[in-house]
Amino acid sequence: MQRLVDAFRARMNDNVAESAARIRAAKLPFYEGLTDAQLSATLARAFEAAAADVERGEPHMLLQRMREIAIVRSQSGVAVMDVVTGLNLGFQAVSDDFAALWPDDLELRLGWEQARAKIAYAGAAMLADTYLEAREAVVRAQSEALVRLSLRVLPLYPGWWCCRCSASSGPSARSRSPRRCWRRWPTTRRPMR
């Protein structure tokens, strides 16, 4: 296993460069907005996390990285599939690199593919879960804002309306707070909207 970690780390810079080229060629919408330096730095951090997980034997660092990515990307509306595709292109670059450099070392290549399967699956699952949680929070906040704005005047029942009123709840002027007022509109007049 140490041989795999050493090979992964030794080829990391070349694999980062190859992954960046593949991602540029795929024209993924999120990565299109990054400069070459930003893309290389992002990939280098992901590869460092993957190297730590390969050494550890189980996914941990990449999961934390995927959680951070999902929170930031969900706020900007990036599709999860773009990030997962970028992850897959990077890992495929390592697989192709190992196949080209060590075609007869099946133990090394199988070790990488097993580690890749664990890391990629857990990373994609973490990314999707965190992304959905973060998007739900954004949608919930937008929904609450919409409800606050629309609750100023709402029809409750034909002839009955709910509107927001500001009034003092006591003798002092500083105790003003918004409250709900229920009002019955006369049936002969229609309320103004």
Short description:
This protein has about 190 residues and is mainly α. It has helices spanning about 1-10, 10-25, 30, 35-55, 60-75, 80-100, 105-150, and strands at about 155, 160-170, 175-185.
Which helices and strands, and how do they pair?
Blueprint: H1 2-10, H2 12-26, H3 29-32, H4 36-56, H5 61-76, H6 80-101, H7 106-150, E1 153-157, E2 160-168, E3 176-184
Antiparallel strand pairs: 1-2, 2-3
**Spatial strand sequence of the major β-sheet:** 1-2-3
Number of helices: 7
- Mean pLDDT comes to 81
Give the % helix. Answer: 55-70%
Give the topology string: H per helix, E per strand: HHHHHHHEEE
What is the rounded Rg? 28 Å
- Which percent band covers the strand fraction? 5-15%
Largest sheet: 3 strands, antiparallel
Helix/strand/pairing class, anyone?
Answer: mainly alpha
Quote the distance from N terminus to C terminus: 72 Å
What would the principal axes of the Cα set say about the shape? elongated
Low-confidence stretches: 166-170, 172-179
Number of strands: 3
